[in-house]
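Could you please consider the sequence and fold appended to this message?
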Amino acid sequence: MALFDKGSTMSELPEFLHKSALRKLDDFCRSAGQRPINPRRLDYRIAGLQVHLFEVRMGTGKTTTTHERPMAQLRFNPELNQWSLHHQNGSHWQLYLGVGPTLELDKLLTAINQDPLRFFRHD
């Protein structure tokens, strides 16, 4: 069953998909901070059909400012009803070839967590 008509110009996630993504992303970010080895603070923004996942780091020294480091981008293709995972390559985003587009956002979050080639880590 299609989430959009082929001719749809909708540029936002459908409500039920948005709510599901929020729940999964909240869990993913929370679990990253609870890991006993190398915990990190992650956060995300949803903009249209894209999720921008980033690492939040505290400033050095006496400053209390935080810095966001882009980590991954998840894109939803409404024509195919699929999510794809992208990593940053220099100044642009590139399709991550370690896992193909999928209907299941969880598969992409697992790929980010496993990250054997360290595309999604900044330490």
Observations:
- The CA atoms of residues 77 and 83 lie 6 Å apart.
- The mean pLDDT is 85.
- The chain has two helices and five strands.
- The first helix runs from residue 15 to 33.
